[in-house]
Design brief:
By secondary structure, this protein is mainly α. Helix content is 62%, strand content 0%. It contains 7 helices and no strands. Helix 3 runs antiparallel to helix 5 and helix 5 packs across helix 7. The longest helix is centred in the first third of the chain and has 23 residues.
Length: 138
């Protein structure tokens, strides 16, 4: 009767596997309440880095025409606000954010390179406040 111990071991494995599966399936799953979309995206936090990303994405949407002309016609000008949005998105936001907006990696690299170079060639003007205002009325 050598097959009997093998059959017994086989049945023991099957029954114990079944018991383990049913015990795990009967376990209560803790209820998970997801955070709101604004909380997950950190939009509600004032001054947060991600809110700058969202503002920059909206600004980039506003200058989409400039970006299209930049690539289609070879027009080599993007406005300062458009470049500021691109620099913010590329340097401060999530990786590949421009790709999620429909730009290829190469297009994102080109835009970033152009705007970084434009920022070093034409730094933003800083107007110093005039401490001595002349009295014109005398």
């Amino acid at each position: 009767m050598p097959p009997m111990p093998k059959l017994f071991i086989f049945l023991l494995v099957i029954v114990s596997s079944h018991l383990a599966i049913t015990a795990e399936a009967g376990r209560a799953i803790p209820e998970h309440k997801p955070a709101s979309l604004a909380a997950r995206l950190k939009v509600a936090e004032n001054g947060s880095e991600s809110s700058n990303c969202w503002e920059s994405m909206f600004q980039l949407q506003a200058c989409t025409g400039e970006v299209i002309m930049f690539f289609l016609n070879g027009e080599t000008y993007l406005g300062p606000s458009c470049c500021q949005a691109i620099r913010t998105i590329e340097h401060e936001c999530w990786p590949n954010l421009l790709a999620s907006l429909g730009y290829t990696t190469e297009e994102g690299d080109i835009l970033e390179g152009y705007c970084d170079a434009a920022a070093t060639l034409h730094p933003p003007l800083v107007v110093a406040p005039n401490k001595h205002v002349p009295d014109i009325g005398r």
